[in-house]
Structure formats: structure tokens, C-alpha cells
Specification:
It is a single chain. The chain is α+β, with helices and mostly antiparallel strands. The chain is about 30% helix and about 40% strand. Strands 1-3-2 form a 3-stranded antiparallel beta sheet. The longest helix has 19 residues, at about 20-35.
Length: about 80
């Protein structure tokens, strides 16, 4: 079996003030997973990636680093499905 992979930006920080907001945020996260599943994408993992931006003219020589979360989905390649049929 061969797979193809897809990445989708994931929330970095969930600002939650109370339990109701926590349930809503968790539900929204589930909705995002289900949205991808409709097209046959299976949730694989959540990963972080860091970037580094070279200093600009006004940055004082500092390198800017940022981290991002991403959801990784996978699904079987269409060619593989056809070969197995």
C-alpha cells in the first residue's frame, strides 16, 4: 500500500476562559478532523515545525524563530486502490 500525505495548519494556542469554551474548542478541533475525513483523509499525527527568519534591516541582528503546529493526514493513493481491485 502506498499513501499520500496532507498537512493542515493546527491551532497554536487555545484561549479558553471556562469549561463551556473548552468544550467548544475541542468540538471545533473534532470538526476539523471530520472535515478532512469526508475526502478519505485519515488523521495520522500532529507535529510542530520551527522556522527561522534571517535578520532584517531593523531587527537589530536578531534571528526570528517561530513554531507552528500542523495536522498530518494520510490516505491510500488512488493508483494503489486500482491495482488491488
Amino acid at each position: 500500500m502506498q499513501y499520500e500525505y496532507k498537512t493542515v495548519p493546527a491551532p497554536m494556542v487555545l484561549s479558553i476562559k471556562n469549561e463551556k469554551e473548552a468544550h467548544t474548542a475541542i468540538g471545533n478541533f473534532g470538526d476539523l478532523l471530520n472535515k478532512e475525513a469526508v475526502d478519505g483523509w485519515e488523521f495520522h499525527s500532529m507535529e510542530s515545525i520551527s522556522t527561522e527568519e534571517a535578520p532584517g534591516c531593523f531587527s537589530g541582528g536578531r534571528v526570528t524563530r517561530k513554531s507552528y503546529n500542523m495536522l498530518i493526514f494520510k490516505r491510500e493513493k488512488a493508483e494503489t486502490k486500482a491495482e488491488e481491485a
